Amino acid sequence: FAIVNDGDDDDRLLAVSSPIATGAMLHETVFDGDVLSMRPAASITVPAHGRVALEPGRAHVMLSGVQLAGAASGVPLVLRFAHAGEVHVEAEVHR
Questions:
Q1: Which of 11, 28, 35, 44 could be joined to 83 by an S-S link, Cβ 3.0–4.6 Å?
Q2: Are 60 and 25 a contacting pair, CB within 8 Å?
């Protein structure tokens, strides 16, 4: 999914949670030489009048202990921002 900031100030995504997962973390993908790895991200900055895509191979949300009902194609998330507060969304699932 993508986060769009139409405001005049940068914002930061501080945390994520989901009612259908026991854990949720912000992650970033980094290169260390030729090695690609993931690590937890303290926050993700969304620039003023900008857009940040959260997707595999980049900044993303990692869920654990997910309990999907049936063949759900989306997962409810609560995104907590420094300025915008809590935002409820449904994100596409990649398995």
A1: 11
A2: no
